[in-house]
Design a protein that fits this description.
The complex is a heterodimer of chains A (about 200) and B (about 325). By secondary structure, chain A is mainly α. Chain A has helices at about 1-20, 30-55, 60-85, 90-100, 105-120, 125-130, 130-140, 140-155, 160-180, 180-185, 185-195. Classes of the chains: A mainly alpha (about 200), B alpha+beta (about 325).
């Protein structure tokens, strides 16, 4: 979906323009870290909203946006991480210490790591090579990733937890839709077990 | 093979295929319309969202980057001044933590107009011989005003260099005449949601309370600021009276003080109550004691991109380390 890609990349362009014009304020690195993190989480939530939306409405178009949104989320998460690395002078020692000693960082780092295999297997070829069932199972890691990302956001906020709690609520609602709609989703398996009625030749 | 399959039969593969590949069966006009709509919606939603999140009035970069309009004429540095470059007025007054005026760092500058620093009285009481309520202008006139160029290190990992104008806290405390029971100083900030709209949210327990041990308060570095950059203290920086204790994290520097009480017991301070594992009563700047979520070993000086090493007691160890002799500063953080 090139249109969604272009739309999704617009915030990155705004971010660069803001950085160049000084509109990111007195602490631009911190601002950019925060913005890219929030964008990554938002896009991840949006990509995970596609399937529930399809289940609830029967529309097929949200499902076609899912991959693009997921890849955009990964892109912003990677950018978020790169800015963090820049902020720490690209010191792997400092990064390792942070990841190992501070649950807040561990959660965010793990959320990003889990997105890597998903991004790598986002091509139709990867689906074919893995087989749809295995590919689907692998991509369920997105649930774990979004949960950890939400936790990372919650821990990262100093005091007012309203916004992270809203995200947590949306994530929980998306999970709930899937759980409740499970029986419907398993219907195809029953059909597959029986020989499909052939159309008359 | 003909196409009319039952809907049930069509589901597994067909749906997968439809999910995984863009609908090429659409005619070009519809596809174009759909793309245009999607682009507009996505761009609008994401771009608009980012716009909302990033730009806040008051974070004016032009002012922050221009030459300091309130730079004071050069004067000989005093014994407590740092030689480091002073943070420009624009940045020092638009990047503030003052939760009573909003949680975003640009909020205080935006909302400071609601804070009315005159008329203003300060209550001086507790374990003192002369409890009294005094007008801010009278209180200020008791002491000759001094310049102090202090580093300020925020617990969040950023720092500034602030040219304060004010008087030593010790002078005020001596004037209050502490009794022998006085062991601590408790400061209380203004409680008035009309002037401080952030207090309508119970983000913290209002009013904001901070405290010092009496010997810390009597240290010559402990300072009551009434001005900044040679000007009257702006609302967002804690007008009309605030505390500056440069060897401690910034949140100890309570703003808009209405009451100073000498007590015999350690005050219950706001952030220590809100998150005892993260913010202690002492809050001495200490690169060796990390915050639970980040290291305190480095800091970013506002205006710089990189980070610099954080110094023990924010570089004031020679002056203040003796106050904490024999204390485990990991425990009393």
């Amino acid at each position: 979906m090139p249109a969604v890609t272009a739309g999704g990349l617009l915030p990155a362009a705004v971010l660069v323009a803001d950085a160049l014009s000084g509109a990111l304020g007195a602490n631009p690195i911190q601002r950019a870290t925060f913005q890219t993190g929030l964008l990554a989480l938002t896009l991840l939530v949006l990509s995970l909203a596609c399937t529930p939306l399809r289940l609830l409405t029967g529309w097929t178009w949200p499902a076609r946006l899912r991959k693009t949104l997921g890849l955009l989320a990964f892109g912003y998460a990677a950018l978020h991480f790169l800015i963090y690395l820049f902020d720490h002078g690209f010191s792997l020692t400092l990064m390792t210490e942070d990841v190992l000693e501070r649950p807040f960082v561990t959660a965010g780092f793990t959320a990003l790591l889990l997105l890597v295999p998903l991004a790598l297997t986002s091509t139709p070829r990867a689906v074919r090579r893995l087989g749809f069932a295995r590919w689907t199972r692998l991509h369920q890691l997105a649930y774990v990733s979004v949960s950890l990302a939400g936790l990372h956001y919650y821990w990262g906020v100093k005091k007012d937890h309203t916004s992270p709690l809203i995200y947590a609520g949306v994530i929980a609602a998306l999970f709930l839709v899937r759980l409740l709609r499970r029986p419907a989703a398993t219907r195809p398996r029953r059909v597959r077990a029986e020989p499909a009625p052939r159309a008359p030749r | 093979m003909t196409d009319p399959q039952t809907p049930d039969d069509a589901q597994p593969q067909d749906q997968q295929r439809r999910i995984l590949t863009p609908g090429s069966d659409l005619n070009p006009r519809r596809e174009f319309l759909r793309s245009a709509t999607l682009f507009t919606v996505t761009a609008g939603a994401l771009g608009g969202g980012l716009e909302l999140l990033t730009r806040r009035p008051g974070a004016g970069s032009a002012e922050a980057q221009s030459a300091d309009p309130f730079a004071r004429p050069a004067r000989p540095l005093g014994p407590y001044d740092t030689k480091e470059a002073v943070t420009p007025y624009g940045q020092a007054t638009t990047y503030n933590n003052f939760y009573e005026l909003g949680l975003d760092k640009a909020d205080p500058a935006r909302l400071a107009a609601s804070l009315k620093p005159r008329p203003w009285t300060v209550r001086l009481d507790g374990e003192v011989r002369k409890p009294q309520t005094v007008d801010i202008d009278t209180l200020q006139s008791w002491f000759p005003l001094e310049d102090r160029i202090y580093r300020m290190r925020c617990v969040e990992g950023w720092s500034m260099v602030m040219p304060w104008l004010g008087f030593p806290l010790a002078a005020l405390i001596r004037r209050m005449e502490p009794t022998s029971k006085a062991k601590y100083v408790q400061f209380t900030a203004l409680l008035d949601p009309k002037q401080l709209p952030g207090q309508r949210q119970a983000v913290l327990k209002w009013p904001y309370v901070e405290g010092l041990r009496l010997d810390e308060a009597l240290h010559p570095l402990a300072f009551m600021a009434v001005g900044l950059h040679g000007r009257v203290l702006p609302g967002q920086n804690g007008a009309p009276l605030r505390l500056a204790v440069p060897w401690k994290y910034g949140f100890k520097g309570i703003k808009s003080i209405v009451r100073i009480t000498l007590t015999s017991t350690q005050p219950q301070t706001t952030w220590a109550l809100a998150a005892p594992s993260e913010y202690g009563f002492y809050a001495n700047v200490n690169p060796a004691v990390p915050h639970p979520r980040w290291s305190q070993a480095t800091e970013r000086r506002i205006g710089e991109l990189g980070r610099r090493k954080t110094l023990p007691f924010n570089g004031y160890a020679d002056q203040v380390a003796s106050l904490y002799k024999g204390m485990d500063l990991r425990k009393y953080f």
